[in-house]
Amino acid sequence: MKFLIIEDEQELREIIANYLNEDGNICECCDSLRSAIDKLSIYEYDCILLDIGLPDGDGFTVLEYLRVNKRTEAVLIISARNSLDDKLKGLNIGADDYLTKPFHLAELKARVVAIYRRKVFNSNSTLIFNEIVINLPGRSVEVNHKPIILTRKEYDMLLYFIANKGKVIAKNAIAVHLWGDEIDMHDNFDFIYTHIKNLRKKLLEVTTNDYLKSIYGIGYKFSA
Ligand code: CA
Fold it and tell me: In 3-state terms, what secondary structure has residue 186?
């Protein structure tokens, strides 16, 4: 998953990012409201961890921005404020859940996994696309009842394609989703081709359906 961590306490921000990175997630970080809006105006994320008390405003402004721009990111508020009013306000204007500081990192992870699954995969622990069956908690994939072994990037890529099935996804969108926003500075995104080629090859070993199509000059499309 790709996270945007909006938190002005540097130590906490780094602890969260390091913890989530261990699982192969991509974490982008912001320490102010302004830098958060700057990031969001260019890039998309799976999940946003949002502190309410920021040096240049409050996190509710981010929720408002997401709502106005019809964004689909899952949002978990992480805030020291523990008033019922703040929680209700946050949930009312689009946050998916609320975690009060201090918290255990394991709980943070469990909450984000749950809200992301609820939001993107309707709470299912199994994601099915034709004969492809993905066990989300186990990060395992079966095709026609045969397990296939994917690398972490191939698995994340498959999930991203299925979440965006039927849409043409630009190469740079795939790259920033799986490698982080900095990759956008690269001149070309051909390095994703190797991963896509391997994923496609592994799928074609167990199914005759070729779901992953290259759209010349643009990117890729995953469709039945
Ligand atoms: Ca703060």
Answer: coil
Domain coverage including residue 212: 126-222
Check residue 83 and give its pLDDT. Answer: 79
Q: Within a 10 A sphere around the Cβ of 4, how many other Cβ atoms? A: 24
Residue 112 shares a structural domain with residue 6:
yes
CA distance 28 to 2: 8
pTM exceeds 0.85, yes or no: yes
Same domain, 156 and 214: yes
Cα of 117 from ligand 1 centre, angstroms: 27
Question: How far apart (Å, rounded) are the C-alpha atoms in residues 31 and 25?
Answer: 19
Nearest to 208 by CA among 152, 154, 130: 130
Whether 160 contacts 171, CB under 8 Å: no
Question: Rounded to the nearest whole angstrom, what is the distance from the C-alpha of residue 31 to the centroid of ligand 1?
Answer: 9
Q: Which two tokens stand for residue 61?
A: 């402004």
CA–centroid distance, residue 51 to ligand 1 (Å): 6
Per residue in 102-161, pLDDT (tens digit) is 999 999 999 999 998 888 878 788 999 999 999 988 899 999 999 999 999 999 999 999
